[in-house]
């Protein structure tokens, strides 16, 4: 319906771009100025954009797209083409994609093998649903709402209802998963949340009550002091004691728990890492209470953290259910729930069906191109570079954290109180980084955390460029505000 309205708007517009609008841009692979860091080379030359003009697309977006879907930046981008870690807008300007569609593009934009697989498969079969068998189904099984399905299976298996999640965690925006999401900015007013969802402790070693310089599984530690050692993390013990309290005060005394769900590293919440051993203690406790443990690997899976293929491996735990999406499809809307036959068999107590459960499109090249190793090498290199920003901009950069190519930079306005950087200033830095050719994400409760989650094929040269761009944007911010 919206497409038809859009067509009516654009039918009488000029589809080929007016050359007067692009006197400062061309199809050149890169555009550098004396004021910007030099962008790494790229041999790919994008095609010329021939679609509707910018204002028509902007008008259509503002008119017909849900108002909740707000584009990034003061001047929203029209992305026209992508190749590996690079994106081009409608003017031909090139950007280094350091956000990867929120950790979705795992092996790179328009990877030739994925393109070939799509062409080969769609020339034979597009869709038949899971009521029939087809030869590609065993490779990946699509599940559009992986966490919802995981909750259902856990409740059926345990015969209990409560789902426990961590504060600041994000597990989706559907009616059920939004109840497990524990970030206020994702909560609609006046809407009664469904029962059976409990939010536990917020184990952030930088911003929350406990944690210090030896607590995080990251090349970079927070600058708070702690007495922890290699065998024991005091912060982990204290946060676990807080976690136990939910069973004493919020959970029914005579009943158990259906499941505990957590991301290996909180993504939307701002790349928050838990103290060492915390997740392992929680898993053991939940299992003793008769519950299942769900690992939400939507953002941390498929080698993003570098050291392991799955994020939960870093915590030394074995989940009962694993939910997957984003990187599984490199941009295709694929998801999966992985569990044991015993747990999955509980779905046989009623009919269960998913229209897209038989999608035949699937591809995996992470291992063949050694992208996990690249994520660890390039990611560690970038994190170590970003670590220098803590001392160079102590009044603006509060924390650098993460591992592999899942990195967060928390921006503040007061290093003593850790007050988040004001929204206006945050957006100025965000916009400046974009103007210099790097696309980042932002997240956290106050949207004051720069999120770096690029395709796993980025290079050290890309990391160096990203660092220089962020550094220049911070320096500009510092100089501007020192004059105020």
TrEMBL record:
The keyword ATP-binding does not apply. It catalyses: N(omega)-methyl-L-arginine + pyruvate = 5-(3-methylguanidino)-2-oxopentanoate + L-alanine; glyoxylate + L-alanine = glycine + pyruvate; N(omega),N(omega)-dimethyl-L-arginine + glyoxylate = 5-(3,3-dimethylguanidino)-2-oxopentanoate + glycine; N(omega),N(omega)-dimethyl-L-arginine + 2-oxobutanoate = 5-(3,3-dimethylguanidino)-2-oxopentanoate + (2S)-2-aminobutanoate. GO terms for biological process: glyoxylate catabolic process; L-alanine catabolic process, by transamination. One of its GO terms (molecular function) is pyridoxal phosphate binding. It comes from the Eukaryota. It is found in: Mitochondrion. InterPro entries: Aminotrans_3, Aminotrans_3_PPA_site, PyrdxlP-dep_Trfase, PyrdxlP-dep_Trfase_major, PyrdxlP-dep_Trfase_small. Its cofactor is pyridoxal 5'-phosphate. PANTHER family: ALANINE--GLYOXYLATE AMINOTRANSFERASE 2, MITOCHONDRIAL (PTHR45688:SF3), PTHR45688. Homotetramer. Multifunctional aminotransferase with a broad substrate specificity. Catalyzes the conversion of glyoxylate to glycine using alanine as the amino donor. Catalyzes metabolism of not L- but the D-isomer of D-beta-aminoisobutyric acid to generate 2-methyl-3-oxopropanoate and alanine. Catalyzes the transfer of the amino group from beta-alanine to pyruvate to yield L-alanine and 3-oxopropanoate. Can metabolize NG-monomethyl-L-arginine (NMMA), asymmetric NG,NG-dimethyl-L-arginine (ADMA) and symmetric NG,N'G-dimethyl-L-arginine (SDMA). This is Alanine--glyoxylate aminotransferase 2, mitochondrial. It comes from Dufourea novaeangliae (Sweat bee).
């Amino acid at each position: 319906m919206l497409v038809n309205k859009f067509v009516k708007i654009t039918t009488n517009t000029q589809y080929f771009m007016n050359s007067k609008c692009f006197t400062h841009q061309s199809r050149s692979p890169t555009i550098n100025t004396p004021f910007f860091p030099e962008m790494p080379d790229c041999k790919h030359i994008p095609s010329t954009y021939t679609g509707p003009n910018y204002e028509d697309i902007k008008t259509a977006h503002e008119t017909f797209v849900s108002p909740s879907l707000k584009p990034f930046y003061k001047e929203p981008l029209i992305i026209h083409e992508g190749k590996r870690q690079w994106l081009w807008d409608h003017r031909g300007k090139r950007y280094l994609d350091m956000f990867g569609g929120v950790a979705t593009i795992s092996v790179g934009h328009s990877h030739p093998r994925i393109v070939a697989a799509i062409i080969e498969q769609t020339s034979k079969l597009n869709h038949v649903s899971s009521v029939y068998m087809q030869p590609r189904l065993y490779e990946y099984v699509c599940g559009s709402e992986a966490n919802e399905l995981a909750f259902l299976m856990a409740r059926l298996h345990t015969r209990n209802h409560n789902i426990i999640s961590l504060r600041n965690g994000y597990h989706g925006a559907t009616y059920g998963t939004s109840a497990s999401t524990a970030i206020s900015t994702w909560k609609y007013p006046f809407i009664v949340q469904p029962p059976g969802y409990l939010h536990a402790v917020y184990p952030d070693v930088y911003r929350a009550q406990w944690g210090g310089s030896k607590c995080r599984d990251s090349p970079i530690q927070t600058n708070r002091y702690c007495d922890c050692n290699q065998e024991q993390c005091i912060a982990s013990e204290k946060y676990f004691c807080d976690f136990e309290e939910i069973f004493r005060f919020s959970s029914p005394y005579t009943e158990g728990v259906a499941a505990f769900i957590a991301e290996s590293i909180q993504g939307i919440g701002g790349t928050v890492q838990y103290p060492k051993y915390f997740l392992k203690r929680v898993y053991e406790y939940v299992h003793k209470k008769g519950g299942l443990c769900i690992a939400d690997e939507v953002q941390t899976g498929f080698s993003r953290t570098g050291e392991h293929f799955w994020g939960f491996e870093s915590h030394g735990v074995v989940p009962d259910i694993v939910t997957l999406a984003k990187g599984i499809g490199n941009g295709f809307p694929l998801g999966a729930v992985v569990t044991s036959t015993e747990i999955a068999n509980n779905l046989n107590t009623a009919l269960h069906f998913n229209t897209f459960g038989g999608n035949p499109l699937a591809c995996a090249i992470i291992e063949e191109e050694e992208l996990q190793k690249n994520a660890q090498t390039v990611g560690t290199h970038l994190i170590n570079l970003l670590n220098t920003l803590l001392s160079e901009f102590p009044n603006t950069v509060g924390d650098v954290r993460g591992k592999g190519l899942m990195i967060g930079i928390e921006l503040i306005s007061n290093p003593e109180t850790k007050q988040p950087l004001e929204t206006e200033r945050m957006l100025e830095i965000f916009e400046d980084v974009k103007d210099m050719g790097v696309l980042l994400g932002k997240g956290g409760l106050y949207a004051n955390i720069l999120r770096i989650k690029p395709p796993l094929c980025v290079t050290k040269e890309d990391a160096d460029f990203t660092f220089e761009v962020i550094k220049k944007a911070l320096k500009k911010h510092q100089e501007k505000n020192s004059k105020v």
